[in-house]
Amino acid sequence: MRFKEIILLELRALFCPKSPTVLLLFGIPILYSFLFGCAYSGNVVKYVPTVIYDQDQTAASRTLTQAYIDSERYDVVAQVTTQEEMEQLLHESKALVAVSIPPKFAQNIKLGIASEILIVTNSTNNMFANTVISSSQEIIQTFSAATGQKLLEALNQMPVPALRSAAPVKLGIRIINNPTTSYTNFMLAGLVANGLQIAILLVAGTLIAKEYSHLPRWQGTSSAAIVSGKLLPCWLCAIGAFITYLVIINLFFGVPFRGNAVSILLLGSAFTFLVINLCFFFSAISGNEVSALQVPLLYIMPGLLYSGLSWPLFAMNGFAQAFSALMPLTYMVDTLRDLLLAGYSPTLLKNVLIMFAGGSGLNLITIFVFTKRRKKLQFPAAKGVPA
User: Fold this and answer.
1) Closest C-alpha among 191, 201, 199 to residue 304
2) What are the structural domains, with CATH classification, of the chain?
3) 152 near 178, Cβ under 8 Å?
4) Interatomic CA distance for residues 65 and 52, integer angstroms
5) Which residue, among 274, 292, 273, 318, has the nearest Cα to 42 in the 3D structure?
6) Which of 58, 208, 290, 310 sits between 20 and 30 A of 221, alpha carbons compared?
7) Are 171 and 117 in contact (CB under 8 A)?
8) Which of 38-42, 108-112, 338-342 has the highest mean pLDDT?
9) In the chain, beta strands by DSSP E
10) What is the DSSP pairing of strand 74-80 with strand 48-54?
């Protein structure tokens, strides 16, 4: 066959009306462009949940508090009166940033003594620390310059020399949970969880679909028994893989392991249960083993971006948040990172229940679909084949 004929043959295959491969070639990048663009449409992290601990309660401290309230980078969810309340909100992740204004704040400013504003930020997600440090520096510098200038103008100094002479407020930063802002701690556990998800797809993705061509060997066996018999060994192996990768990232890459081992194992069990049943569902509705791998792969590819691992969920728009709710990683990676770095996650129980409930629902649907298709393939009504 000549070279030109090969080219024409391939072009016909690409643009074949029955199977327009070229639509996949162009359609998938276009689809992902919109999906990924929606996730990052906010450009910067805004409205980070913040608690204010004002120990001074003066006009000056309230002015500084108002500056944080007015900033679109912060969402002041509480103003507390004790250190314990502030720490509790941070521990429960109801606030990701705390602004602590010291006692005698206004008095020290009037006396020309520098006062330090302490910013405490949760850096399990490095985005928070980066956003908080840069925006707080702007707020504190603006407040400090304005306050110092007014003080020195009161002493009959001209505005420009006064501005150069004083900056009575300093910024102190305390980063918790990931104090070195390590990118390995920030990303590695979630990235490998995505790898585990892909591995499960490659192993479990064809397990149901391939049985449609081997139905005679399952005579007298219920569909529930077939699906469950395939689920259990695959699930146990996936849990083992989950444990193995956590041990590796801890021993070889120094990722902390501060959480309770039972909690982490429960989270991994729920995640692998959901992903396997998701793969089984796609396998049950697929026409063949190839599509049983291709279709779920297209589905799970955006999962890492929409999981909240790198870009926090609250910074996404409404569409992105709704789409993320369909991704297994959304209920896994942020919670796992909290358990590893902070030793606690307030979303653990909720996310475990969601994943087990979702996996159970998909399991029932898989059994139903497999049963229907099994009967249709064994006893095609149109041909009148007797039972």
Assistant:
1) 191
2) 48-176 (3.40.1710.10), 183-378 (no CATH)
3) no
4) 7
5) 318
6) 290
7) yes
8) 338-342
9) 48-54, 74-80, 97-101, 115-122, 169-176
10) parallel
> Which pair of structure tokens corresponds to residue 140?
């504190």
Tell me the residue type at 387. A
pLDDT in tens, 173-191: 787 887 767 778 888 898 8
Q: Which residues contact 108 (CB under 8 A, 6 or more apart)?
A: 102, 114, 115, 168
Q: Is the pTM of this model over 0.90?
A: no
Return the axis-axis angle of helices 126-153 and 59-70, rounded to nearest 10°. Answer: 140
Nearest to 235 by CA among 191, 194, 270, 285: 270
Which pLDDT score is estimated for 7? 63
Q: What is the total residue count of the chain? A: 387
d(CA 113, CA 233): 67
Residues 67 and 151: their CA atoms lie apart, in Å, by 19
Give the residue among 267, 127, 254, 252 at the shortest CA–CA distance from 193.
267
